[in-house]
Amino acid sequence: MRLVIVSNRVTVPERSEKAAAGGLAVALREALEKQGGLWFGWSGAISEGTSHPVRTIQRGKVTYAVTDLSEAERQSYYLGFSNRALWPLMHYRLGLTEFSRTDYTGYLAVNRRFAKALIALLEPDDVIWIHDYHLIPLAAELRRRGVTNRIGYFHHIPWPPSEVFGALPFSSTLISTIASYDLVGMQTVVDVRNLISGLEAMCGAKSDGRKVRVGRRETVIQAFPIGIDVEAFRKLAAASVRSATTPLKTAKESLGARKLVVGVDRLDYSKGIVQRLEAFGQFLRSHPEHRGSVSMLQIAPPSRSDVPEYAELDRQSDETAGRLNAALGEFDWTPIRVVKKAYSRNALAGFYRRAQVGLVTPMRDGMNLVAKEYIAAQDPLDPGVLVLSRFAGAAQQMGEALIVNPYDTHGVAEAIRTALAMPKSERIRRFEALYATIDATDIDWWTKRYLDALSGIDMGLPDVAPPAKAKAKPKAAAKTARPGTRSAARPRAVTGTSKAAPRARPVAHLP
Ligand SMILES: O=P(O)(O)OC[C@H]1O[C@H](O[C@H]2O[C@H](CO)[C@@H](O)[C@H](O)[C@H]2O)[C@H](O)[C@@H](O)[C@@H]1O
Ligand SMILES: O=c1ccn([C@@H]2O[C@H](COP(=O)(O)OP(=O)(O)O)[C@@H](O)[C@H]2O)c(=O)[nH]1
């Protein structure tokens, strides 16, 4: 069996790059390397012209297959429908959701183009694992071209209730494409519940809370909270203390004995950066005894800057930090430093280790890996305290953090005070519980659990009628298959636009 991963963006590693840096990309690459595999997606580059050939690059047992987007595709598929419609909608931000039919058409067209390109690379036994909201209709596009391979999907961001999701034009067409997957992984049980009730309400699906039946297809929808490479992060953080050259050393010199509160997020409105700066300002106003002895460092690398809402956030965060620094700072103390650049994992591990408080307060977040990285990086003998938004997926697993409501400025301000005053024994107790959780559910656990589930699923009936000769196979397979094993009699893949492939039917169309 070969694993095929599909994601919006694919980063081809340098020849010399070691897998030790950790992270999602590395974990997926490791999963591919174990059995050999293919990773398909956007190269991240833009090129013009009408044809965008697929380039393949070999790295050990992994083949990377990438295609460029045209500028029009980047605008409609990536910036437009994915990041101005789906991203705010999935993060419960109806007020920021901008729908355009042109963007939606572009989104569907890129999914169609990806499906066609991928089919040319598929082999009969491939297990396909598709990632994220950019590619929701991809399985439906593959199915309508006759692909019967196992196809899984992992949704990295939240899924809102259908009252919110239903505001999107063509929402029922889009959600119905979920039924083309065999396994759908979500970050939390709340997301699972929302997706299933959406399928019930909008597509007449029948469900037992885990398996969902839409028409002839059965899809398993389950929570698989994503993890991090805990051990790698722990080691990076421990090494940063000894290193004489890391940014941590400079930070130590510039901070002196001051305590540090750290935030690390892409510059994204879902992360609650402006609200967090306000909460830190409120903390300093309510507790003036801390002025001069605590600083906040917000690392905020720019993200999706071509989307107007992101440009506005960039302006707002500068304005807020500037205003608070002017109002509260002293000639020898700047309360807030906002650094708008990306740091290496190495440097981040050092900052996390140095910070007495990790401030992770998104307004809504699929998981939030920073929360887990902060814990992994702590000194077990003198750990810092995690202040965590109840609206991050991570809060479902990390109840021993100080859980806050990011909309409550005074509440977050009080949590900062509580964290800074927390006795060491309580800090250690909370840290040990949190570390045990993230260690038991690390990135290897996540990858294995998802892939085991995907390969253990009974394939049931395909969503499109296979040629008459092959029809008996799925039933026989269902009888003989043992739980947790793949049935030997499962339907073979139909790849390419073979003659046997059923007639295409519309997947998600504009009227
Ligand atoms: O590729 P970009 O547009 O620059 O965005 C970066 C990634 O952001 C999102 O991350 C989500 O996945 C994380 C891991 O599961 C999760 O912890 C976090 O809460 C989510 O926001 C996005 O889903 C990715 O596709 C982007 O690559
Ligand atoms: O300067 C930075 C800021 C962030 N990150 C990494 O980006 C990821 C952010 O993941 P998270 O789940 O917190 O949010 P996302 O950006 O995926 O929504 C984490 O692994 C961070 O370590 C990084 O490498 N350098």
From TrEMBL:
Reaction(s) catalysed (UniProt annotation): D-glucose 6-phosphate + UDP-alpha-D-glucose = alpha,alpha-trehalose 6-phosphate + UDP + H(+)
Gene Ontology MF terms: alpha,alpha-trehalose-phosphate synthase (UDP-forming) activity
Pathway: Glycan biosynthesis; trehalose biosynthesis
Region ranges (Disordered): 466-511
Enzyme Commission code: 2.4.1.15
One BP term from GO: trehalose biosynthetic process
NCBIfam families: trehalose_OtsA (TIGR02400)
Family: Belongs to the glycosyltransferase 20 family.
Subunit annotation: Homotetramer.
Functional summary from the UniProt entry: Probably involved in the osmoprotection via the biosynthesis of trehalose. Catalyzes the transfer of glucose from UDP-alpha-D-glucose (UDP-Glc) to D-glucose 6-phosphate (Glc-6-P) to form trehalose-6-phosphate. Acts with retention of the anomeric configuration of the UDP-sugar donor.
Record-given protein name: Trehalose-6-phosphate synthase
Organism: Bosea lathyri
